[in-house]
Amino acid sequence: MTGILTKYDVVIGLEVHAQLSTNTKIFCGCSAASGSEPNSNICPVCLGHPGTLPVLNKKALEYAVLMGIATQSTINQYSTFARKNYFYPDLPKGYQISQFDLPVCENGFLEISSGHGETKTVRIKRIHLEEDAGKSIHDRGNSTLIDVNRCGVPLIEIVTEPDFSSAFEATDYLMKIRQIVRYLGICDGNMEEGSLRCDANVSLKIKGEERLGTKTELKNMNSFKNVEKAINYEIERQFEILEEGGSISQQTLLWNPDKNEAYPMRSKEDSHDYRYFPDPDLIPVTISNEMLSEIRSMLPELPGAKIKKFTEIYLLPEYDSSVLTQEREIAEFFEEVCKQTLAFKEVSNWMMTEVLKILNEKKITISEFNITPQNFAGLINEIKSGSISGKIAKDVFADMLETGKDAASIIDSKNLKQISDPALIEPVVKSLFDANKQKVNELLEGKEKIFGFFVGQVMKSTSGKANPALVNELIKKELENRKNE
Ligand SMILES: [Zn+2]
User: Where are the alpha helices (DSSP H) in 87-166?
Assistant: First the structure.
């Protein structure tokens, strides 16, 4: 890669399709849900039968505008739909309703990481609404099957300027887009199932030259890892061709994740090949000031702002902030907990380890988690006040998880309160010393490992309830006594 970078600039642009999680399709009342019996969620409108009229789903428009606001885009209060004409078996209408000249959002941007702790601003050229096409299923014997359920499912296409100069940057952008659509609740972001899809335009430009190289388009990269791999593969492939004196042909390449290779799919059409023209069945989309401010008021606090708040208000390290803001619900749970305790870092530690582990293991979301923010704060407060030790806290946590009860009542009913009264621990230490004279001598001779033995024994005979710091202190004190005997 270094050889490439001394001679060429890598130029990458991304087109991301996000399936909007509306109940119904973009221009008809059919269910937009996936996973139904093939060819069951269809009607004359989404199949484009003659004489039918599409009507825009207001929710889809709202979602597109939300995404525009979240990416600092200009919202066009007047936009239009166009027909993109092409033939494909899974597009029975022969055209896709999309937006061309006047998309609903334009000129946005997003901050991404370019690696090594630096940030970079990526320009978003446009976000437009369109309908999805159906699916061709090739893996059932010798024939190809068509499922048109997906025809008319609403999409937004988010198109960037060619601002990325590495696969790393492109992947980081895609992760941020996924995080934002999930925060907004407008798309589930599932790349494997195709509700978030990413195409990449890749070209190499000789350093110092104005003219861009010929670009190829990569498709079928259904995970972050594949996006990164495919782009790097394509950069190397183009480099090799150019170095051998060849030229790049403008084409679409399909990524094959099993073979880690990309294959040409078809030669790429220019936009004029699609014969875009205004859709005569759809009136222009207008967004009133009132509607715009209503949508604006629906905007939640976004990941960037949350991270800032987590580091500045809750004083968490950068790492904690980025982990806890990964998902909106997790971030909100954290904030809910922190309304009832000031031990922010303690909450963060517990959430990043114990809570996230449980969610992962059980494959559940935080909304299905058996401990409420209030009870969780209660547990943290019990630890902070010294009422229970960190070790006992783990048991209480497990109990809370199972029963849904609060920490205080579990500590009470199981008599788990930490013993912090020296008068209760001192006799235990003394009798332990008496019973293990040999070990005491070894300890006095400097065998420090023996110290752990005594701590362990005191903890054992107090069922783990003794305050560990106090136990340490009392053992040292008793040791001094014996030394002077
Ligand atoms: Zn329909």
Answer: none
- Measured at the CA of 105, the angle between CA 102 and CA 110, to 5 degrees, comes to 140
Cα–ligand 1 centroid distance for 285 (angstroms): 20
pLDDT digits (tens, 9 = 90+) for 238-293: 999 999 999 999 999 999 999 999 999 866 556 668 889 999 999 999 999 999 99
Q: Which residues contact 119 (CB under 8 A, 6 or more apart)?
A: 111, 112, 113
Sign (positive or negative) of CA dihedral 421, 426, 429, 431: negative
Cα of 299 to ligand 1 centre, how many Å?
29
Query: How far, in Å, from the CA of 280 to the mean position of ligand 1?
Result: 19
Name every residue whose Cβ is closer than 8 Å to that of residue 123 and which is 6 or more positions away in sequence: 107, 108, 109, 160, 161, 163
Ligand 1 center to 30 CA (angstroms): 4
Residue 42's CB is within 10 A of a number of other CB atoms, namely 22
Whole-prediction pTM value? 0.86
70-101 pLDDT per residue, tens: 999 999 999 999 999 998 889 999 999 999 99
Identity of residue 192: E
Show the domains of the chain with their CATH numbers.
2-291 (no CATH), 303-413 (no CATH), 422-483 (1.10.10.410)
Ramachandran angles phi, psi of 24, nearest 5°: -115, 170
pLDDT, one tens digit per residue, over 287-337 is: 999 999 999 999 999 999 999 999 999 999 999 999 999 999 999 999 999
Q: Give CA–CA dist 136/127, Å, rounded.
A: 26
Quick one: tokens of 237? Answer: 């492939």
> Nearest 5°: phi and psi at 258?
-75, -35
How many whole angstroms from 47 Cα to the centroid of ligand 1? 7
